[in-house]
Amino acid sequence: MPPTLTRDQLNAKLWGAADILRGSIDSSDYKNYIFGFLFLKRLSDRFEEEAEAIVAREKKAGASEKEARAIAFQDADEHPFFVPARARWSEIKKLAANIGDELNKACAALEAANGAKFEGVLLGIDFNDERRLGDPKARDTLLSKLVQHFSTIPLRNDDMAEPDMLGRAYEYLIEKFADDAGKKGGEFYTPRGVVKLLVELLDPREGMRICDPTCGSGGMLIECARYIRAAGGNPRNISLCGQEKNLGTWGICKMNMLMRGLIDARIEKGDVIRDPKLTDGGELMLFDRVIANPPFSLDQWGHEEAEKDRFGRFRYGVPPKTKGDLAFVQHMLSTVNATGKVGVVMPHGILFRGGREAAIRQGFLEDDLLEAVVGIAPNLFYGTGIPAAILVFNRDKPRGRRGKVLFVHAAKEFEAGKNQNFLREGHIEKIAEACRRFEDIEKFASVVGLDAIRANDHNLNISRYVDIAEEEEQLDVAEELRKLRKIEKERAAAEARMNALLAELGFKV
Q: Lowest mean pLDDT: which of 179-183, 321-325, 426-430, 443-447?
């Protein structure tokens, strides 16, 4: 039987759920309910698809219909995720009253049946929330419409026209929610072009342990897995870890991982500066690659806790109270192993601001950890036009790169959009290739020794090292005079024609 759903059709169906919610609840709450319904429907459809295959297998082996169905629908060991009866869509479709309460119970049963894999994933979604969904009657009406809508979306593997269609649909929704919510959405979504560029620069490999300490909805970790698969590696043979402060976003990240089959990903919830959760035996876990887009210039980031940090993460100095950027960088440097790399998106200010931040810059420069500074285009991120820079750190620089930093002026590498700029494949490849080559490229990249950076007081402003001045157009004086004479001739001819016409009409010229 051919697949019934294309990617565009699935995207349209999923975004159509937002139309049901629009006007009834705040747009910032859409994502929780739509992701929740998508998760429940997908798990149920996939469970039933697996169960039907098990029934066929058991009957072929000689079991009766009843015996085969008992194994397929009641034996949890037969399924990667077990969906108890009350959480199956066939039961959810029957709900007519107290739908929110029943959905909450279905979620609780799902978590109980799957233990640590699902623990807390649906915790941030309350289908019985009167404050968001209204009184019992309004709530039942709205939830009934959503149940009916999702009943029209087939989500079995056999329904999908392409293998990773559901994962792509997740990305589509996350991007749409970010676009819809502006800056607030941008807290958990980094544009895909920026994510792809970061991953290209870090070049993760099979067998590595990879971490995103401010992982949001998990896009960077998923892109690392996709990159490894595209290179012929097995994405199941990597260890993915992350931490996310926002409870709702943490749940979305967990769902995202489960939907992608990245079941073993360890995603912790909590504030990574105040309470890092990725530890082993009381010490910070170490990773081969650490990748992140932390919140820019965060106020109240945890200055007091940093001053007495038990992990010793802030060896280069505690950042200013109102600017936490370099706190995240130092955390990342503290969690990368002796041969590992760090890739992080930062606001330009950290490249040149003085005071404590200058001292921190000096520290990691003198320890020869910084490998590249890439200035990317403005207006790439949701809700802010601030230009950003990508910093790449390497604890095991190749011999030819030691004592040097590559500066890349990639601010002009973008495709302009109506409200936002975009990094496309060609831009990503040009930037990544410059970093791989690690050599001077006129007006684009410059390799600079530490002595030159010291002479600039450890200032990392890209324009100090890459000549970004526009070349003045050379004026051909003779050619310009020729053009001027031609224009004057044409003007004189036009004036003569006009005077002749006026004379014919009887006017004195």
A: 179-183
